[in-house]
């Protein structure tokens, strides 16, 4: 990556150069549709900002972002009030554009071109228009098919790029991909897969808990009983790739061990031996020590980072795709397309009424579409 900075002010970067670095970092060797969309949207924003005198990263301010949010609102009103399809946009599109620019500015913060990201400030965000798509009015989030596909596509792209560049050193993107796939397709609860600091029994998934031959995971269920959670083949490749990169020293090793350096340093000190050049995982295993699993809070942070970096278009009033929304999302997909019993089994609900109540919001129109699909295949 070219990290050439403005000679006059350390840390300042021309916006166009910073944008190109950002797009390159998000693209594969051939560019990719995602990188192309980032290039287009952020490029349009830079043109808008340049018309207002913003050329370098030190020209970025709360006021500039607030004015742009108001500009997006005017474009939404143009579509709603005047049916202006040429210049108007939907509220959902406005939020998607904003998330791409917010992700670009987060990148600038990470590289020291900006001290903070004004696009994340509450008084700026509140200038955005409401999203026009109807969503569930409840506080419970459900990942939609569109949201799930966006996130899966992004983590796939990041993991493949990292493997191409770093091989077995592609730890974080490959791990992130495995986290997303398990949440998106197993229907397991976050506390069943990752460590819950409030419950000593919930110490995170181990490799010995993963059975690809039987398509199941062994987890500690909500009732504190050991249960078998579904592990569909759709999720196998991501987890197997994560295992090849991680190379766990034992079958009982955490699937998602922490990378928190102070925690690992304390474990190494407990061994009371010189590690030398031995890999840390092997060293800890030789001394009957294991790193703890990442926590449920860490996973929420991972998802928030991925949604921000990937410019994921999150519906409703939610800032990012939350872990429990994945469980509700796959349950809803099964409920709609395979029936009540399939959803109940996948989510491991003891009481069938729990499943029915969870998806009582499925509209008659959606049911009619499913009926049409079934009858058309008769």
Note down, in words, how this protein is organized.
The protein has 16 helices and three strands. The protein is mainly α and 378 residues long. It folds into two domains: 111 residues; 200 residues, Intergrase catalytic core (hpI Integrase, Chain A), CATH 1.10.443.10. The longest helix has 22 residues. The N terminus is likely disordered.
Q: Which strands sit side by side, in order, in the main sheet?
A: 1-2-3
State the secondary-structure class.
Answer: mainly alpha
How many structural domains does the protein architecture include?
A: 2
Please outline the major beta sheet.
Answer: 3 strands, antiparallel
What is the H/E order? HHHHHHHHEEEHHHHHHHH
Would you identify the CATH architecture of the largest domain?
Answer: Orthogonal Bundle
Give the tally of β-strands.
3
CATH class of the largest domain: Mainly Alpha
Principal-axis shape equals globular
CATH topology value of the largest domain = hpI Integrase, Chain A
- Gap from first CA to last CA: 56 Å
Mean pLDDT: 83
Task: Give the helix tally.
Answer: 16
What are its keywords?
single chain, mainly alpha, hpI Integrase, Chain A, 54% helix, globular, disordered N terminus
